[in-house]
Amino acid sequence: MTITATINGQGVTVAEGVTILDACRQVGIDIPTLCHGPTLTPANVCRVCMVELEGSRVLAPSCSRMLEDGMVINTDTERAGHSRRLVMELLGSASELDRTGSKLDAWLEGHEADIDRFGPGSATVAAEPKIQDDLYVRDYGRCILCYKCVDACGEQHQNTFAIAVAGRGFDAHISTEFDVALPDSACVYCGNCIAVCPTGALEGRIAWDMKEAGTWDVSQQQVTRTVCSYCGVGCNLDIHTQDGRIVDVTSPMDHEVTLGNLCIKGRFGWMYVYSGVDE
Amino acid sequence: MDLRLLLERPTEAERMAIDAVVGSEERHNGRVVFGGHAARERRHLLLPALHAAQDATGAVSRGALSYICDRLSVPPADAYGVATFYALFDVDGEPGSTLHVCDDVVCSQYGATELCATLDADGVDYHRSPCLGQCDRAPAAMSHRPGVGYGVAAPVTARSVAAPVPEELPPGFIHQERDQLSLLNRIGVVDPESLDSYRRLGGFGVLARAMEMGPQAVIGELKKSNLRGRGGAAFPIGLKWEGVRNASGDVKYVIGNGDESEPGTFKDRLLMEGDPFAVVEAMALYGFATGASHGFLYVRGEYPTAERRLRGAIDQAATAGLLPGFELEVRRGAGAYICGEETALFASIEGHRGEPRQKPPFPTESGVFGKPTGINNIETLLAALHVIAIGGSRFAAIGTEQSTGPKLFCVSGAVERPGVYEVEFGILLGDLLALAGGIREGARLGAVLMGGAAGVFADASALDMPLTFEDTRAAGTTLGSGSMIFFDDRTDFGPVLTRIARFFREESCGQCVPCRIGTVRQEESLTRFLSGADVERTTLDDLARVMTDASICGLGQTASTAVQSAIGLGLV
Amino acid sequence: MFGAGGGTSSYQEIEETDFIVMWGSNAREAHPIFFHHVLKGVRNGARMFAVDPRRTSTAAWADVWLGIDVGSDIALANAVGREIIAQGLQDMDFIENATENFDGYAEAVDSYTLDRAEQITGVPGDVIKMLAHEYGSAETAQICWTLGITEHHNATDNVLALINLALLTGHVGRYGSGLVPVRGQNNVQGGGDMGALPNKLPGFQDVENADLRGKCEAIWGCFIPPDAGWHISRMHEAMDEGILRCLYVLGENPLQSEADGKKMKERLENLEFMVVQDIFLTATAELADVVFPAAGWGETDGTFTSSERRVQRVRKAIDPPGEARDDIEILCDLARAMGTDWLTPSAEEAWDELRAVSPMHAGMSYARLDELGGIQWPCPDETSGGELFLHSRLWDRPMTTTPAPFHAVEYAAPVDELTPEFPTRLTTGRRLDSYNTGVQSGRYSAPRRIFGSIDLSPEDGADLGVAEGDRVRIVSRRGSIEAPVRFDGSLRPGLAFMSVHFPDDTDVNVLTLDAWDPKSGTAEFKATAIRVEAIA
Predict the structure, then answer these.
(1) Contact A233 C314 (CB under 8 A)
(2) Which helix or strand (DSSP H or E) is residue A150 part of?
(3) pLDDT tens digit string along A17-47?
(4) pLDDT by residue (tens digit) across C467-485?
(5) B38 to chain C: which residues are within 8 Å by CB?
(6) Strands across the sheet containing B127-129
(7) Which chains touch C (3 or more CB pairs under 8 A)?
(8) Contact call for A175 and B80, based on CB within 8 A
């Protein structure tokens, strides 16, 4: 079954069961997204991806609204652009967005978003980074509450539920139960939250330290795909090296065995490689 | 699930209170444990269990939360996230009594501002509460004593508020002649704790009649009546009930939305407290007509009397065999305005944070527990009961063509006789004001806030507007929940607006960016605007636009309407 | 299974199956990403039963956990089989067309009544019946197991008992139904694929088959001994007998990983000559005459084969440290020193040679492995995309290939008997953040690591009069060690658990018995009789 709709004045025919966002990307229209991830059900919360849908009183979230036959969609109207700009300005006014990658910078610029417009007295989510072990940094001043980490830790992948959204409204934040330290929580250090964090609020310790020191340089990094050296499940790993040294290990999001997920051994257990070498 | 619990254990009192909700624990023998899906399906007991812990001690301790998690297979972080969402759960707080003083739009105009100042000066420990639904006798307070219970008092003074749990209040004032009333007909007449009393007044006769008619005929009458939902969205009820009936699937639910939290609204409280058996009968009718065998009455946490009476009414009705094939239970809210939004209410019943969900899918297709669900507020349910009582055509003859039937308005603020008024749709705003005795102390009307915090301000020019769905829509205003808060011309609207802005900031669920951050920026910007920064007008307009355009649910979409309209009318 | 040494199914199938049995597998900790797929199945509505003496973090997810006595699996499986037949839930069409020896099986399980099984396993008969009913009536079902089944003196019989259940119900050879042994090491499946088994040539070809041997001899240009070699337990015996006097150990730490560690140490010390090739100077390497430092993960190219028979490329990302070298180079240099030039092939050249001798790998060029992100064997030629699941042939009608046989197997109690002197059953296993003897996993910082301990039920701890953290002495018929106590509510009284990860300070293999399965050569790590003594 196919669906025919109109996007930005152009007729579009796509397979049934795709979102507006999928359809837009299929025809080469890029829409900014933050809380959307390829391996997660859309949380539908960041509202960066809103588009105008004819007949709808309000804008529609392209990431989670399914495309329907006959829909007339406009992604680049003044109204959609205004909404997108404001959402970016709101996010930028509340959280540190300097480690989100170049894409967001381009979006901010493209939408002429002014993240300082609300003035210096604006409430923010600024917080001291939580460093409670040798593996993780939780730098929640960079958190935009996109729910990805919670979904990855919870029902959608890991099913550990070490973290959840606690509190309400602007006080809503990612937390363990009673904010206990991570080693005292249910966390199993799989790092699957880090894998999906779009803003650098969750980082492996090595990457975070290097970013703080200004030595993290993606342009100087190579990625080599291999397989984990521990159990027999066969998780693919991407080894990130910089200056001939491993600086990070991740799993590819499109690998059907892991969907980007790993366990603690896969994500961090490789550090034996430098045991006895560094000393 | 492989839970990692906290080290703290519950006290004996907590354990007993929680066990009363979730059942007592059986220790496994090291050979067999039944868990899995069946265990996880008990998650919906999370809020009742948290209430049990809170009620027992006045707080949700670590030990209690951990024990609940163990018993219900809910991870502690998850349960903590849920508990901290709801204002009435004092998570990890000190055990003991609690006091909630309403300082919302109406109460703050009528004594709460001074009351709070006195309490602050006396060092009294209390929480500032959003509207407690007692606007016709402001100011109001709610107190709780562990092991004793909740009580609401209104009006209160600094001295009376310190008393232990107060006596139960009468449901409210009826200022109209009884024989003119249909929805309020039994209030103050029927004994709300006696099934016999209700039946002597003809109670459960409508349900019996409906059972003779059959579900299709019931829905037919509803369609004929042109009854529309009273919660604000004005959806045709016959269509909604038919939608649930026709939805595929064996398991369906019906829900009575008694989470009345819109500031200035107290009509559903009056109905639940004053005529609880009618609410139960209406729910049974709903279940019968839609084919749902299970119903929930979700009652606001701030309405302890309504909750108690509804539980009693269900027990009595079920015992008397009046609810055949229909299981009805009460769920208590826990302090979250957003749970009045239907999808957030589903999440709350399921034991989650009250976060709204994307629509579509609509509830008739996928509602609570992912099943087809019918949900209506209490006034709508009683109106539906009235449709079957008098017939769809007679109902349709009341009011206007598009807005049929009797309608309840909650009139509060600067009027002589605040209270709930039952009128026909189409009454002029000015006539409603006159019914309530006009503006108090001979002052003149300053403005009226129609529809509560999520509503719109109107001034004297609106007094000749007929109160119907169609006329208010045409005028760019709203009936909303039926709340009409009147202000006289001496009112300083600055504090009123900042209270409304704070209300939205505090009640935003926090899920979507436009509302979570937008409500904060609106409050900040409004404060600057009120101190003379005219440039903030652009900011407020931008925020209003993005909240309206891009928020997930009605809360964010209406979080700026009152502020915008007040500025538009030049009230500030 | 039925001639091929690998699991029948793909991970994706468990996401869509109706019924899952996790039998002797704590995949939640030992195979966490496999368990993600299991959890997806559970979230999709699959019912899950867990059979495990401990209520592990895996069992905690089960709809029903069956806490059997260690080593009583065959009694349970046979009782389930008997009950399936009693309830008439067996798939007679499948049995008649695709199997043989059903009558022998039915006869053999007939004595495993629910009562008898309850007596042997400790699991209530009605719960055994429930398992039989649900497995027997499920549309699709998977049985997954790991070392809880295979680290026993009768490991092969254990596996056969489970296979019998799949044959009985037709839960094999179809999408969503299968038998899934999850492999414990990154490439233990690949090692088997390559023929690193005493009785197999590459691709699980029987070494005792002259035709197959001849084919390899032609390609390799050398003579292949016509008899099966020794598996590891037989090698141990041969060392005891003084027949085996020289040992070359590659990437293993037998001093710490083998049962009855004291005896193992004597064996290794009595060798005339031992070479160890490893990435670290392991405890075994310290006993070696010669040590070859080898390049490790991230430092070499090659392939691994996963538990779903998926061959995937491994690639070099960094240079090995110091004098460490690629295994191929070391082996070829050694061969050269012994007078044969193997030309030091690249990893790909070595792989292509494997493809030439192993039909099931023939279609897996490096280019195709790269392109497809791995291929699941069998992949006989370059048009084949591999197989999602094995044995679909059993559903061919008419069935023209060899039927799958039922094997009647009998319960046999663990060798190390419980007696008043040794009243507690010790079982061993892994924890999430650690791995085997800790050679790799001991060298990174895991925030929640549980170091060497003996886990007891709180009740047993109270009886002993010890508190958590107290050191106790653990005594078996082979030796004794000390360890701190940890209380674990997932254990019942009489059952103790130790992890295998910290041999340097808590060497559990001092206690274990090297009774082994004559067919697989695996030792009975899972069932040791011990006594726990408080240390005054």
Answers:
(1) no
(2) helix A148-153
(3) 999 999 999 999 989 999 998 999 999 999 9
(4) 999 999 999 999 999 999 9
(5) 63
(6) B127-129, B98-102, B141-145, B149-153
(7) A, B
(8) yes
